Amino acid sequence: MNCETIDCLMKCQYLSFADIAEAREEKLKINDGKDSRVLEQCLTCYACQEYCPYDNNPFYLLVERQEEKGILPAPKPIIEEQLRMMAPKGRITKQAVSGPVVDMCAFPMLTGCVRGKLFEGASTIVGMDVFCNIMWLHFAKNSTIRQRVPQMIDNIMSFYLADSGTNELVCFHDECYGTYTSVADAYGVEVPFKPIHQFDYINQRLNDLADAVKPINAKIVYQRPCSNRLVPRTDQVLDEIFEKIRAQRVPRKYDRENALCCGGVPRAHQRDELADELVEKNIKDMLSVGATYCVFNCPFCMATLGQEVAEQGLMPILVSDLVQIALGE
Amino acid sequence: MTTDLTTRLGKIVGSRFVSGEAEERYLYSMDPGTMPAAAPDAVVMPANTDEVQLIVQLANELKVPIVPMGAGLVLSGLTRALKGGIIVDMKRMNHIIEVNPISRYAVVEGGASQGMLKAYLKKHYPQLKHSMPDAPPIATMAGNVCIHGSGHLSVLGGSHSDMLTGMEVVLPFGEVIKTGSCSVSGKWFGRSPLPDLSGLFVGWAGTTGIVTKLGIKLFPNYKHNDVLIFVAEDADLMPEIISQLTSTQVAEGMTPWMSPKPAWAKGFLHINIAYGAHTKKELTFKRNLLQASVREHIDRKIAGFLPLPPPQKGRFLQIPSPDLARFADLRKGGGFEYVGAMMAIEHFPEAYRTGLEIAEKFNVAYSLGARIIGAGHCMMFFFAYAFNRADAEDVKRASDALEATNAAALKIGGIPWKAEQPAQQQIIDKMDSGTFSLMNRIRSVLDPNQVMNPGNWEI
Fold first, then answer.
1. What is the crossing angle of helices A233-244 and A198-208, to 10°?
2. Disulfide: which of A97, A179, A303, B49 matches A123 by Cβ 3.0-4.6 Å?
């Protein structure tokens, strides 16, 4: 292994290594399919994907190894029950859609976010039959991703996009965009449509709607989600969005490459005390910079942290809703 | 006779509150369960203890049966007039008489409902709550106590009859008596240190008197509340898990549930664990205790807590739980009944498997579950069956399944709870003969004319 830095492990915020030699040793074990404590202790935050200077897929490999070895990040009944909950329901029917088609993944409760000038003329698709399934990376279930993602892609095409006159799918959530770009690429899954990240879509719309923007003129803190690690380019696009609506993304310790997990996944892994610590660190960090809004793009992060954030006096809000405020909606 | 009866009842309660008309007699002839209809001759709604006393005296004079009724939601037909007579509907006696916030008890009339007390406490004593059964809010506290009901605080406080602090009762011959501390003191704080006469009226299916007032325990109403859902696949583990979770003594309520609907839940065994605290820090401490108690199963990856983000927890914190009501409407037609069998915790695996076998054999829509009573001291294991009341075959299937379940519960070592008349017979068949003999002697002393809800607890 020629890597000089072993950034994938040395930069990890949740695991410590005595020195680079130890990190290298553990990484070699993973590469060679041997037992490694990393496989047992990984928080599955995706960050190593971003840390790798060679654009390799250290996280996907790690999850692959976990599954090969039967290492369960969470108890088996928890994984099995969620696999059933999130399984395709087969209830999908053909629906006429027109662009922009916004993929709301498994979040029907958020379809109301697709409204107003920002999403003018948009159609939404939502439900378990179009669920991106990337969450199984948190549960050592690469096999489920391989099995279900092609079916989801086929559903999106045959039930929606094929007859729509558009080949573009706006992904509301980083996870979907990460699936149809990074994961699909790594797993050799063909994606017949063009995924558009919500940030790219919003950024473009703000160009069109520049005259309608009323500056937010407020400090915000951003809770960067794990899945954005798969598509770090889009974090820069988000900066452009914030700039256009005059929302000041205040630098804080746990943002950008140093973003800290919201705590949701550790709870699923039965590591509640660690999750509590992460929540506390995040909120303390947010409060220290005097922001008005706590902005999320991940609905799961918002569900996990939103109540706590609100109790501490910050307003939890999704990126799209913040932009809509700037548009006077 | 009916005209004479209603006329005389009318003189006691006023003509607006008595009826011998066919419509009322029909409505009061059944409950939502599977038991066949049995119509009364008259229905009467007294407003106070004096009126109840006069009604009972009249029933004795005329040798007419008398059936006390709260909301009529027992589901096992205990408020049907099996031998005709008068149904005494207690709903007008619905006053909250007293709340003692320091000694934490409430005194209510015999027809006061769960929902009324909940609303009253919320408005006047938000720091207090009482244990609610998962029944419609109209269910009465007296009715639920008298059937040994249980509720969302039953891990904390035991069954609802354990939370009883005293009673005022009109005996079958018309005397009014008190049980518990209120018989000596002006306070309704408890049943000790006196001979526990409350037991003469609890579990007797209304055959020993009419409860006109009762005292019940209240509990702290926490600012912060949470629920955990523990999930396992192996029924044989459940007694140990329940024992471990209850050993922490921080849960207020624990309800295992096993259901084929929604489809993702089929085959998994869940335990909803509700707990509360005055502060977030205390809440986290309690959560950690609960989690630590079952850590060995988590570490073995064979069971664990379902991840639930805060917004998803609201549904599971609703009191009463809406889930049974949803299940009750699973088969359109609104029929729903269950065998709740009180049994030792170690019988959980056998009860679970028996429930699955019976549901399959009789092809009935089912939901299985339990409510843990006390710190794991016992449980009410329920085998619930939904059916379409308008479909006679469906009703018959559910009824047959219930009968088979009663027999199976007894065989396991359980005792059918609030047993319907046929199940009472099954219990009596298995009961110690001395016990049943004593029950009969007590009844013959209390009710020489055999007017109180006859047909129940009889051979």
1. 30
2. A97
Give the number of domains in chain B: 3
Domain count within chain A: 3
Q: Which domain holds residue B268?
A: 224-419
ipTM: 0.94
Do A221 and A185 belong together in one domain? no
Express each pLDDT in A194-253 by its tens digit: 999 999 999 999 999 999 999 999 999 999 999 999 999 999 999 999 999 999 999 999
- B260: which chain A residues are within 8 Å (Cβ-Cβ)? none
Burial of B450 (0-12, 13-18, 19+ CB in 10 A): middle
SS3 of B36, please?
A: coil
**Cα–Cα distance measured from residue B379 to residue A303, given in angstroms and rounded to the nearest whole number:** 34
Q: What is the CATH number of the domain that holds B56?
A: 3.30.43.10
Map tokens 């954030």 to a residue: A309
Token pair for A298: 């991940």
Q: Domain ends where: A44, A69, A94?
A: A69
Stated as kind and residue range, the H or E segment containing A294 is strand A293-296
Indicate yes or no: CB of B307 within 8 angstroms of CB of A264.
yes
Residues B174 and B60: beta-carbon distance below 8 Å: yes
Query: In chain B, which residues have their Cβ closer than 8 Å to the Cβ of A307?
Result: 310-311
User: B145 and B203 in contact (C-beta within 8 Å)?
Assistant: no
Interface test mutation site (partner B, options A72, A267, A270, A302, max chain B beta carbons within 10 A)? A270
**Around Cβ B385, how many Cβ atoms within 10 Å?**
29
What is the value of pTM for the model shown? 0.94
Answer for the pair A110, A299: CB distance below 8 angstroms, yes or no: yes
Q: Is A223 on the interface with B (CB under 8 A)?
A: no
| Beta carbons of A87 and B265 less than 8 Å apart | no
B186 at interface of A, judged by CB pairs closer than 8 A: no
Domain limits for position A31: 7-69
Q: Which one-letter DSSP state was computed for residue B210?
A: E
Q: Domain check: are A64 and A109 in the same one?
A: no
C-beta atoms of B297 and A75 within 8 A = yes
Phi, psi dihedrals of residue B446, rounded to the nearest 5°: -70, -35
Strand A168-171 and strand A101-103: the pairing is parallel
Residues B250 and B321 in one domain: yes
**Separation between Cα atoms, residue A209 and residue B148, nearest integer Å:** 66
Distance linking the first and last C-alpha atoms of chain B: 28
B412-432 per-position pLDDT tens digit? 999 999 999 999 999 999 999
CB contact under 8 A, A80 and B306: no
A156/A74 Cα distance (integer angstroms):
30
Q: Residue-wise over B182-192: b if at least 16 C-beta within 10 A, else e? A: bbeeebbbbbe
Distance, C-alpha B418 to centroid of its chain: 7
Question: Could you tell me if residue A1 is inside a domain?
Answer: no
Distance CA(A295)–CA(A309), nearest Å, equals: 10
State the Cα–Cα distance between residues A40 and A70, nearest whole angstrom: 10
Place of tokens 């509360």: B276
Closest by CA to B233, choosing from A77, A246, A92, is: A77
